[in-house]
Amino acid sequence: MADNWNDKIIAEFRANEGRVGGNFEGAPLLLLHSTGAKSGQERVSPMMYLQVGGSWAVFASYAGRDIHPAWYHNLVANPEASIEIGTEHIDVEARELAAGEREPVWEEQKKRYPGFAEYEQQTERVIPVMLLSRR
Fold it and tell me: 0.85 exceeded by the pTM?
């Protein structure tokens, strides 16, 4: 089911120069291309982001589940990735933000999109914030 839902968002994103409707309408959205930690195959995941200087922060919220999403594990195992934003394809290097760096970015995302605060309340884990910087 998740794959089918993601596939629809990915197709809509690409058909509309990075814009989608539904739950993501008007939100900053990118497509993350990561390499599977176990499979070694390319995976594409749509997700919201927050611009941080010339980089992009993404949030491993997994809608408040108690486990990290697969794409997080992929980036930890293989930090060289790429993203699509609008019609642009950008090679990036991922790194997890340490607590001191993470807090202001996470707080800003929760302020802009309160759903992320709800995700945080639904889980015991600290939701990782990954910074994607141009390579």
Answer: yes
